[in-house]
Input
Amino acid sequence: MNYKYEMSQSAKKWSFGIMAFGLVLIIMHVLFSHDGEQHYSRLWANVLLNASWFTGICIAGVFFVAVHNIAMSAWQTVFKRIPEVFFSFLPFTLMLFLCVFLFGMGIYHWSHEGLAVFTEGLEDKFDNIISQKAVYLNQTGVVLRTLLYFALWFGLAFLIRKNSLNEDMEGGTKWYRQSITFSAIYVVVFAITISMSSWDWLMSLDPHWFSTLYGWYVFTSYFVSAFAVIILFVIYLKRQGYLNYVNDSHMHDLGKYLFAFSMLWMYMWFCQFMLIWYGNIPEETVYFHTRFTHYPLLMGIMLFFNFLCPFLVIMTRESKRNQYILMFMALATLFGHWLDMFILIMPSFELTEHPINGFSFAELGVFAFVGGAFIYVVLNQLQKASLVPHNHPYLKESIHHEC
Output
């Protein structure tokens, strides 16, 4: 049985090919797109979109591992090495964020001159609400907090991964117990930083608007996306002759997670929408009014792929055990949640003088470039250790998992 993954030349060519395709589209956007005032704003908005989404997938994948470590769960042990390595992509997404903060900070309305501080000659631009939030919403604060988030996420994920690899070499339960400790710390840190990072990166694009459910909503979107990515990697590796211990019951449980958290996402979306609609406060309703008025088709497509599609397709036991259906649903869900992130970010520009309309080369280009890099980094990291944690105390139980 093959436990050590070797990245094929085909996988390398595909990942680099996707990156090259994305880079070509980005260059085409820069040279040929006609967005007027928003020419570069669209590009940086897409960098922000994919940086935040792929970061969310990375940290949600580690969260999946951490929660199961704490619960001393056995079933996922045979494929836990996949989400364990997601954190390896965090340095790449951090660089994307730093590029946005250094070169594209103008996409954040609150960063514009004269809004937060009363300035002579710019009196008409002064915004009292943004001024009151300036202690928190300022470029230095956002950059420093982002660096702190990434340091905590990467550091704790690295320790969880390190203990997992030490377990392979030495056996026993010492390293597993240490993993539980670091996992518990990670879960607490994650609970705090997932909300704060969503405020800094996404909610602050609409500086006059806020929602107390926003952090939870973004978390569920990240988590569903992470499940979809895990499913795709598991199916890919099985088809390459690896992960032979993964059976229909493992796939069934992954399908249950995808289904359950898709329903949780819909619950969060409806709760946020219903409370704002029922309250009917203009400062709050503008958020959904803008999206339903200017993006009705995209809203409908997004709700279909994120709720109706999983609800109708993977409700039954048989569908969750069918790899073809799961692969289709994972791809459909990823598309839906990428579109969800698009709708979170792009309509924010409707409130400025220069809204971003439609799609351009930038949307597909940035996604392809970052997605290709993510595939390469994850597969490359999977080469560095056995796909099966041989000395894990719950490995045998996981191998014989049935549901």
Notes: The mean pLDDT is 91. Residues 9-247+364-399 form one domain. The two ends are 24 Å apart (CA to CA). The chain has 15 helices and no strands.
